[in-house]
Design goal:
By secondary structure, this protein is of the alpha/beta class. The chain contains 7 helices and 10 strands. The protein has helices spanning about 20-40, 70-90, 90-100, 145-160, 185-205, 220-225, 315-325, and strands at about 110, 120-125, 130-135, 165-170, 210-215, 235-240, 255-260, 275-280, 280-285, 295-300. Strands 1-2-4-3-5-6-7-10 form an 8-stranded mixed β-sheet, with helices on both faces. The radius of gyration is 21 Å and the shape is globular. The two termini are about 35 Å apart.
Length: about 325
């Protein structure tokens, strides 16, 4: 493919503005073909990762404000036991991740050290917060990589003030960035009922008067899209999105305000925002949420790259904070 600029001659309308758009469409078609091939034609290869032994999740009483401390203690104990078992198994990386989660300062609503791992961590005084953000991560988020997800949650929490709390919800098995599963809605469909059930339990802790915001990144936006219909949250925010699986904000069938953003340095812009049905498989996650036709409230994310939306001092973090706090008139729009 020749990417060299062509001179403008005669009545040629191929202006400097049109060329990048044509290049993006061309790249999009190429990527879509690759995604279809990967998801439908190419078989998975390679051995599965050996299972890391870990205890089953703790059996806990229903979550309420009065049972939070018991849940936190039980999940720290589970993480400590998971660290011991992983170390005995010879997996030092997982053992270190589990051991960090067992620290006395950590507060988990749930923990499961089996497989790629699941964890739901709280930042702030959840029982007394009136503004609560629930973060849903994208691909390649596991117990081993949890630190980067946690850093984003902490960055947001630091800006919210004493009446705010953040919940980092790694409550599903995320797809790999380089995998067939990341091109289809299958994992999102499996995760959506888990997220809905969690948010229902969370309301039992924070009460109906608290404002909940759902902040969804990357493949996590497809999870939130599947969970959205009728969801009792104030705002659904998608950023760095390959698509929500819905054709429009209205198709999410939610009473919540729907927001969308993409940083100018985010490579997700070049992923085909479409979906194709082939041989019983859906490839792609639908339209671009930042496009005018989708109908979301599009806000500025500055120069954020795909993993930079919670970077301290960034435009994206400032706007995410305003949305969670309900300062929607202060949000800067794209």
């Amino acid at each position: 493919m020749d990417f060299r600029a062509k001179p403008i001659v005669g009545g040629n309308a191929d202006t400097s503005r049109q060329r990048p758009r044509r290049l993006r469409r061309r790249l999009g078609r190429t990527l879509l073909a690759a995604l279809v091939t990967a998801a439908v034609v190419v078989p998975l290869s390679g051995a599965a990762r050996p299972e890391i032994p870990a205890p089953p999740p703790a059996v806990l009483a229903p979550l309420t404000a009065s049972t939070l401390d018991t849940a936190y203690a039980a999940n720290r104990a589970d993480a400590a036991e998971a660290a011991r078992m992983a170390a005995d198994h010879g997996d030092r990386t997982r053992a270190a991740a589990d051991r960090a989660m067992a620290a006395p300062s950590r507060r988990f609503l749930s923990f499961d050290g089996r497989g790629s791992g699941r964890a739901v961590e709280v930042f702030g005084d959840l029982a007394h917060a009136d503004r609560v953000a629930v973060l849903v991560p994208g691909s390649d988020t596991t117990l081993e990589t949890y630190g980067r997800f946690r850093a984003g949650a902490l960055a947001l929490y630091d800006r919210l003030g004493p009446r705010g709390a953040v919940v980092a919800w790694l409550g599903y098995e995320t797809p790999g960035t380089v995998s067939t599963t990341v091109t289809t809605p299958d994992r999102a469909e499996q995760a959506a009922p888990l997220l809905r059930a969690f948010l229902h339990r969370l309301h039992g802790v924070v009460g109906r008067s608290a404002h909940l915001s759902l902040l969804c990144h990357s493949y996590g936006t497809a999870v939130c899209g599947r969970a959205a219909p009728g969801l009792d949250v104030s705002d659904i925010v998608v950023f760095g999105s390959p698509g929500t699986g819905a054709s429009s904000a209205a198709a999410l069938r939610t009473p919540a305000r729907v927001w969308a953003a993409r940083g100018s340095a985010d490579w997700i812009a070049y992923v085909p925002h479409t979906s194709v049905g082939l041989f019983g498989t859906t490839v792609g996650l639908g339209p671009d949420p930042v496009s005018p036709s989708f109908g979301a409230r599009v806000f500025r994310a500055g120069t954020a790259g795909h993993s930079d939306y919670f970077a301290p001092g960034s435009v994206s973090l400032a706007n995410l904070t305003r949305i969670v706090l309900g300062d929607t008139s202060e949000v800067t729009h794209a």
